[in-house]
Protein: 6-phospho-beta-glucosidase
Organism: Enterococcus italicus
Amino acid sequence: MGFRSDFLWGGATAANQCEGGYDQGGRGLANVDVIPTGPDRSAIIQGKEKMLAFDDTHFYPAKEAIDMYHHYKEDIALFAEMGFKTYRLSIAWTRIFPLGDELEPNEEGLLFYQRLFEECQKHGIEPLVTITHFDCPIHLIKEYGGWRNRKMLTFYERLCRTVFTRYKGLVRYWLTFNEINMILHAPFLGAGLCFEPGEDEEQVKYQAAHHELVASAIATKIAHEIDPENQVGCMLAAGSYYAFNCNPENVWSSRTKDRQNYFFIDVQARGYYPTYALKQMEQAGIELVTEEKDFELLAEHTVDFISFSYYSSRVAPVKDGEQAETAGNIFASVKNPFLEASEWGWQIDPLGLRITLNDIWDRYQKPMFIVENGLGAVDVPDETGYVEDDYRIDYLAAHIQAMKDAVELDGVDLIGYNTWGCIDLVSAGTGEMKKRYGFIYVDRDNEGNGTLKRTKKKSFDWYKQVIASNGENLAQN
């Protein structure tokens, strides 16, 4: 037995990395708009350096991205040609509520997504919609301090109620927050947090995380009330941690790192704060400000499925030792000497995907959905724009085989697979265009130059055959 007959093959994007049109259709300004490329990007993402508006000295790639705002029909038609069963995308909060705290939504923004979802359905593609994908209105950051403020629950609830009502019948699969555990590593990106000098950053991050967790439960509750057909998932940046060696101290280090990631999903999937997290916060002097109803919401409105991104496994820091680091999805890892790495230093570990699938399945026993997986690489097109990306095909084929093994040999419950950046888009970590993931080449460079012409890569027809065979044919042509 291979993948289920209704397996949801597809690809994934995020509004801020592909849409553009930052000042069109009544859209307001968001945190992701004002994160520039260059050496300041990392400090801004981490909330260490405050940037809440554009200046004349930086380049802001999200302003235009690949202009899917005007190209979505063309792009969705290409996805349909590949045979997509699902397309994961995100809603830009500031298209619906430009400031974030209005009482009434922006009709032009609502209509844009309605037409986009209708276009998906026309092609038989099921939208998988992330409500908040590294996206917080600038006004809510300036006025309320982002997710550190409990008032964000009201604004998020209003957003959720609006989109669940408007898109009933058009969207059935929802994710509440993208990579919710990133709030610990990229707090401005994940929660609109800017830290003040001398502020207890850990206290702020965990308080904001509590607000997001309660907001996720509220969203799940409303989604099920408005349409019982709705399926709501949580989402984490996954990748199991290996111990550097069999020194028990290093094994414990890997266990601790895994718990740090799973903490959020423990709450969203199980409905309560795990004891290890409570103890950790107590020891760190973190005191959450909560209300009694928070815990009732968490307990009664757990998610229907667990989704995650997987790019690489990780190795936990070594106890009392020197170790080389490698790059990764926002946060670095100790280098694994047994693995090769991408051009950006992300280590390539297909078996790690099988291990991660089993770890998540064993922990939660809930259906899983891989909603990001892919290889960022420098693609060199020929004179027609065509890219012969055998390296991408090799990467994806190995990872699909690993998840197939997890399903067939281990019995995990996997409902779908979305490659990341199914069309070239702006990198979330670096802001680059040259770090490409897609099956479709977009003519745009790091400085914003190019025609935006879309061209199919070699991997386009390969993925088409993978989907048509329901994952049975992974061979290169």
Observations:
- The mean pLDDT is 95.
